C-alpha cells in the first residue's frame, strides 16, 4: 500500500463520517474529528466516559497527518501516517467496525421536466466471503454473492458489478423500494448453501496430498522415537553393567585393606621396641617449657560474616529504619519436570496434525443491503 493510497483511503474514511477538514495541503491535512472517529482513534476513553457521565459538551480533537516522511510540516504537531503506524491500524479497525454492513441506493437519472414517473428499486443482499484452504500451505478464495430479496435468485461476482454503479446512502428522488419477500436470515442461508455447493465442486486433490505428507511426517516421527527408546534402553544396560563392575572392584579393595590392618600392630610393636633401645643408649637433652601464649579470638571475621548470613548490610539498614521487606516469591517446582519421550512424541504429533491436516475456513468479510434499478448479468444469475 503506497502513501498515495493511504492518503486517499484516509480522506475517504474521514469523508464517510463527514469530518471537518480544517486544512488540506499536498503534504499534510488537518482534521477535526467527529464523535465516532474520536472514540475509535482518539485514544482517550476516560475522557469520553467522564463527558458522557457528566453530560458535558465535548472538545473535539484536532489531528494533523502527513504522509511523506521527508516532508514533515514545520511548526505543526503532525503525525506520520504510514502502513505500520498504530493510528492507521486504528483507522482500519474503525472502518471494519462501521463499514461491515451498509445500506446503499443506486442513483438513477432524474426524470424529465414535468414527468411524474417513479422508478422501482429492487432489494439485493450482497455478501462477501473469504474461503481459506489450509494445510501446510494456504490458498484463499473470495466469493461475492448477491441475493435478490424480491424474486429469489442468487448472483455470483456481485461486488464487481456494484463497482460499476453509482451508489449513495440516500434514496434518490422519484424512486421507491420493492418489498422484501425473503428475510435476511433466509438469504444468508441461501448464500451458505451456495458456498457449500461451490466447495463440493472444488478439486480435492490438495487435501489428499496434504494427508499423504502428514502420514510421511508421522512415520518419520515414529521411527525417530523408536530409535530414541532403543538407545536409551542400551544406555541403561551399559550403566547398570558399569555399576556392577564398580561394586566388585570396591569389594576387592576392602579385602586388601583388612589384610594390611591385621599386620599393622606387629609392625608398630617392633618399631616401638627399637625406639626404646635407642633412647636408653643416648642421653636426652634438657627441655625448656615455654609459658603458653593466648591467641586472640577472631571475632571481627565472625562479625563480618554475620551481615552476609542475615541478608547483607542493605537489609540491615532496612530493618533498622523500619522499612518493610519485600517477601520472597515462592516458586512451586513440583510440576516442573522434564518431559518423557512419549509426551514429547505426542506433542510433536499434535503439532504435525495442526500443520498438515487439511481444513476449510469460511470467514465473513462484509455485506450490505442494496436497492438497485440495474440488474446483474444473466450469465452469473441462478434462479432459486
From TrEMBL:
Residue ranges of the region described as Disordered: 232-259, 281-349
Q: Where is the composition biased (Basic and acidic residues)?
A: 232-241, 326-349
What domain of life? Bacteria
Question: What InterPro entries has UniProt attached to this entry?
Answer: YqhG (IPR024562)
UniProt name for this protein: Transposase
Q: Which organism is it from?
A: Brevibacillus aydinogluensis
Amino acid at each position: 500500500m503506497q502513501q498515495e493510497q493511504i492518503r486517499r483511503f484516509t480522506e475517504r474514511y474521514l469523508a464517510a463520517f463527514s469530518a471537518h477538514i480544517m486544512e488540506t495541503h499536498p503534504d499534510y491535512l488537518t482534521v477535526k474529528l467527529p464523535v465516532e472517529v474520536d472514540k475509535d482513534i482518539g485514544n482517550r476513553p476516560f475522557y469520553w466516559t467522564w463527558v458522557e457521565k457528566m453530560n458535558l459538551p465535548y472538545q473535539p480533537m484536532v489531528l494533523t497527518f502527513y504522509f511523506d516522511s521527508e516532508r514533515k510540516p514545520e511548526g505543526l504537531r503532525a503525525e506520520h501516517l504510514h502502513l505500520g503506524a498504530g493510528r492507521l491500524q486504528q483507522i482500519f479497525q474503525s472502518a471494519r467496525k462501521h463499514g461491515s454492513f451498509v445500506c446503499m441506493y443506486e442513483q438513477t437519472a432524474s426524470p424529465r421536466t414535468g414527468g411524474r414517473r417513479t422508478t422501482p428499486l429492487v432489494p439485493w443482499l450482497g455478501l462477501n466471503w473469504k474461503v481459506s484452504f489450509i494445510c501446510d500451505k494456504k490458498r484463499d478464495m473470495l466469493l461475492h454473492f448477491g441475493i435478490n430479496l424480491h424474486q429469489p435468485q442468487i448472483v455470483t461476482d456481485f461486488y464487481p458489478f456494484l463497482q460499476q454503479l453509482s451508489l449513495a446512502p440516500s434514496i434518490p428522488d422519484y424512486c421507491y423500494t420493492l418489498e422484501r419477500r425473503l428475510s435476511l436470515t433466509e438469504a444468508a442461508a441461501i448464500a451458505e448453501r451456495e458456498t457449500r455447493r461451490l466447495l463440493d465442486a472444488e478439486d480435492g486433490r490438495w487435501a489428499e496430498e496434504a494427508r499423504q505428507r502428514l502420514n510421511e511426517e508421522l512415520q518419520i516421527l515414529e521411527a525417530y522415537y523408536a530409535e530414541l527408546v532403543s538407545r536409551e534402553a542400551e544406555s541403561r544396560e551399559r550403566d547398570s553393567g558399569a555399576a556392577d563392575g564398580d561394586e566388585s572392584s570396591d569389594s576387592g579393595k576392602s579385602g586388601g585393606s583388612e589384610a594390611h590392618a591385621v599386620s599393622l600392630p606387629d609392625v608398630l610393636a617392633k618399631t616401638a621396641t627399637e625406639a626404646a633401645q635407642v633412647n636408653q643408649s643416648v642421653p636426652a637433652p634438657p627441655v625448656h617449657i615455654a609459658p603458653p601464649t593466648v591467641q586472640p579470638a577472631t571475632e571481627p571475621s565472625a562479625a563480618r560474616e554475620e551481615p552476609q548470613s542475615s541478608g547483607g548490610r542493605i537489609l540491615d539498614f532496612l530493618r533498622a529504619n523500619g522499612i518493610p521487606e519485600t517477601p520472597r516469591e515462592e516458586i512451586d517446582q513440583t510440576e516442573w519436570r522434564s518431559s518423557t519421550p512419549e509426551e514429547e512424541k505426542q506433542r510433536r504429533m499434535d503439532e504435525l496434525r495442526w500443520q498438515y491436516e487439511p481444513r476449510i475456513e469460511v470467514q465473513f468479510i462484509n455485506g450490505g443491503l442494496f436497492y438497485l434499478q440495474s440488474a446483474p448479468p444473466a450469465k452469473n444469475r441462478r434462479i432459486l
